[in-house]
Specification:
The protein has 272 residues and is of the alpha/beta class. Helix content is 28%, strand content 32%. The strands form 4 sheets. It has a 7-stranded mixed β-sheet, sandwiched between helices. Strands 5-6-2-1-7 form a 5-stranded antiparallel β-sheet. It has a 3-stranded antiparallel β-sheet with strand order 4-3-8. Bound molecules: nicotinamide-adenine-dinucleotide (NAD) and FE2/S2 (inorganic) cluster.
Length: 272
């Protein structure tokens, strides 16, 4: 059993928890994820390890389906049934990179955080574009301020920063500044569009993928992704990948695969 040390509501859709998980914390590296089960019969929820502090790990989740809604009903002092990890490959930190631009879309700001922080720790120049539907959807901004040299904001409704998508801000920035690498994490369509834009400006892109995962250990095949014609598994080969050759269309076609079942179980068990 894993104790919830703290819980913070980041906005109406997204929450943060700090969980006591000494063995996971001891071995975690930037880019690793963990899988939790809220209770004994719970679905397995994969979540990026956003930060490690001593024996505690920070996770951020979006209340999207039955299991994350169940998780959000838990509070400080409660116990999560299982926490398994660290899983996946640590982020590949590129040696030849001097300046890095992180591009965070919505809740993608959470998986981007450890990777970008690692580049800053290694002394690289790190800037960030963060985008969200509204001002309240710009998450972890204070934490990013601790190590980003410049932060640029975009909101879909114009409530903060540029009115528009992160790609619009990136295109304006690329007219003035040169980056060796962009790490883009957010909705698939955002990552796909970032890759296309970066290609135009000859900037390499890394992304993080979150296809449906079941076991998280390379056994079930649910998290498969096609990269340059080869099948990879996000849980054991990723979740972070160089973007070159990723078949985003295939990922987008598969991401809503269990949407109807999810709706059904939410209605059955939560009445909504
Ligand atoms: P969202 O739909 O609110 O979008 C967030 C931002 O992404 C927008 O504000 C915009 O700046 C940008 N964006 C959206 N559509 C775009 C487009 N067509 N072109 C360019 N930029 C665009 O995102 P959300 O609801 O916070 O995030 C949910 C999504 O993020 C889910 O699809 C989830 O699967 C994904 N996600 C990905 C990861 C990962 O590791 N890759 C982790 C968590 C969540
Ligand atoms: Fe089953 Fe990756 S989650 S193979």
């Amino acid at each position: 059993m894993y104790k919830i040390i703290a819980k913070k509501i980041l906005n109406k859709d997204v929450e943060l928890m700090i969980v006591e998980a000494p063995l996971v914390a001891k071995n975690a590296k930037p880019g690793n994820f963990l899988i939790i089960r809220v209770d004994e019969i719970g679905e397995r929820i994969p979540l990026t390890i956003v930060e490690v502090n001593g024996t505690q790990v920070t996770i951020v989740y979006q209340k999207l389906g039955y299991s994350t809604i169940l998780l959000s009903k838990m509070n400080e002092g409660d116990y999560i049934h299982d926490v398994v990890g660290p899983l996946g490959q640590p982020s590949h930190i590129r040696e030849d990179v001097v300046s890095v631009l992180g591009i965070a879309g919505g809740v993608g700001a959470a998986p981007l955080f450890p990777q970008l922080k690692e580049y800053a720790r290694l002394g690289r120049h790190v800037d960030l574009i963060i985008g969200g539907r509204t001002k309240e959807h710009l998450i972890l901004v204070d934490k990013y301020k601790e190590f980003c040299k410049n932060i640029y904001y975009a909101t879909d409704d114009g409530s903060y920063g540029t009115k528009g998508f992160v790609t619009q801000v990136a295109e304006e920035l690329y007219q003035k500044k040169k980056y060796d690498l962009s790490i883009a994490i957010g909705p698939l369509i955002m990552m796909k569009n970032c890759v296309a834009l970066n290609k135009k400006y000859n900037i390499k892109t890394d992304v993080s993928l979150n296809p449906i995962m079941i076991d998280g250990t390379g056994m079930c095949g649910n998290c498969r992704v096609t990269i340059s014609g080869e099948t990879k598994f996000a849980c054991v080969d990723g979740p972070d990948f160089p973007a070159e050759g990723i078949d985003f269309e295939e990922l987008m076609a598969r991401q809503d695969y269990y949407k109807e079942e999810e709706k059904h179980i939410c209605k059955m068990k939560l009445g909504k």
